[in-house]
Each structure stands twice: as C-alpha cells, then as structure tokens.
Write a structure and sequence with these properties.
With 232 residues, the protein is α+β, with helices and mostly antiparallel strands. Helix content is 27%, strand content 25%. The protein has one domain: archaeoglobus fulgidus dsm 4304 fold. It has six helices and eight strands, in the order ααβββαβαββββαα. The chain has an eight-stranded mixed beta sheet with strand order 3-2-1-4-5-8-7-6, with helices on both faces. Helix 1 packs antiparallel against helix 3 and helix 3 crosses helix 4.
C-alpha cells in the first residue's frame, strides 16, 4: 500500500446509526484473515492508540513508528478530530478510527506490522479496533488490550515472562492472555488482520522491553494521553 492510498483511506465513510454499525461489523468481520501476511524480516513496526480531549469532544489519535529490530523510534504522528460518535458499547472502533486513519495518512512510510492498543478479534462480534483498522487499511494488525472484553481462560497463567494461555469464547479461541511482565496483570493479545493466531503472542513479545506494554503501544499510549515521550 502506498502513502497516497493510506491518505485516501482517511476519507473512509462511516455508518449513520448504531444498527448500521453493527451490520457493518458483521460484514467486515467476515473479511478478517487469520493468516500471516506480513513482510519478513519485519522492518518497521507501528504502535497506535487513541485518547480524548475536552471532555471527549476531541478525539486524539497517535501513531508511532519504530525500527522492528532495535526498537528505535523513527516517526510519530498525531491527529485531532471532533469526536464523531458518542461512546456505544461494542462500537468503539467507529468512534476512534476516523482520527486514527488520519494519523496513519500523515506517516511518511507504511509500516510492516501494527500493534493497536485495543482488541483484534477478541470482541463480541469479532471486530475490535485492531481488526477494523486492519480490514480498512489492509495492514497486518494485532490487538494489545489491557483488559478482557469477552471470553475466558480455563488454564493457569504462570508468573513467567512471556508465558501465554488461550483466551476462548465457548470452544472458539479468540486470543491469548500474555504475561509480558512478572508481577503485572496479563495483556489480552488477539490477531486483528493478516496475522495468525499462533503468531500473535510471540510477535508482541518481540517488542516488550522493560515495561508491561510492548514499546510501540507504550509510546503511542503516552502520546495519545498527552503525556509525551520525555518522562516515564
């Protein structure tokens, strides 16, 4: 995908009602591909997150690019847009994605893989923001969430860095619980698009350094929440 195509995607149209959004979620979820489709070796990895300003009136989206081998930050972009929709449970991606797409459209290069602060298919209709972003842009995406939205794990997650166990909804596996840092709550990892279930947790661990969050989403979280990059 070219930079020009990425900028064009920022003009993506949005549903006018919650019922239309839920119908679109079902259609888009059917397009998700849980098969590795990213470039190897990875060159550039992106992290993205969304926050809000002025009591929720402004959506603030942040994207950070890092060298996939060294984790050295390469670029960052922020987009601020009037918030298009109120908060509706299960439809968060429609509220956050317009600003996020604008931020991606401002990038000078297209990343090989995107880690998204949010869910991939670990969502009641299998279309969290990571999956939604992946379908709209065509980019390989993984959801890196801090809390379980749906599903459960019947297995014990050991206090070992890098340990992970399946997250299931009934008999269907929808993600992983990942112990990224000993003594911290696990992360909820789920593929978004063009990433296999079997690859998702280990890919995220490649980008975990000292902290609970992998570096791409950790840095994006700080930008989206206006805490910047200067201080931990």
């Amino acid at each position: 995908m070219s930079q020009a195509e990425m900028r064009q995607i920022a003009d993506h149209t949005w549903p006018g009602s919650a019922a239309q959004a839920r119908s679109l979620q079902t259609q888009l979820a059917a397009q998700v591909r849980l098969k590795d489709g990213f470039t190897t070796p990875l060159g550039i990895v992106a992290g993205c997150d969304v926050g809000f300003e002025e009591g929720g009136a402004i959506t603030r989206a942040a994207v950070v690019l890092l060298d996939a081998g060294t984790l050295r930050p390469l670029e960052q972009q922020i987009a601020r847009l009037p918030t298009a929709l109120p908060y509706l449970p299960g439809l968060l991606s429609f509220r956050e994605l317009p600003a996020l797409l604008q931020a991606f459209g401002q990038l000078s290069v297209v990343p090989d893989l995107v880690l998204v602060d949010g869910h991939g298919i670990a969502h009641p209709r299998r279309l969290g923001i990571a999956a939604h972003l992946g379908i709209v842009t065509g980019l390989p995406t993984i959801g890196v969430a801090k809390k379980v939205l749906t599903g459960h794990s019947a297995m014990q997650l050991h206090q070992v860095r890098g340990a992970f166990v399946p997250l299931r909804d009934g008999r269907e596996q929808i993600g992983w619980l990942l112990r990224s840092k000993v003594g911290c709550l696990p992360l909820v990892i789920s593929p978004g698009h063009r990433v296999a279930m079997a690859s998702a947790a280990e890919l995220v661990m490649r980008f975990v350094a000292r902290y609970r969050l992998p570096e791409p989403t950790r840095l994006a979280d700080r930008l989206a929440s206006r805490r910047g990059l200067a201080h931990e």
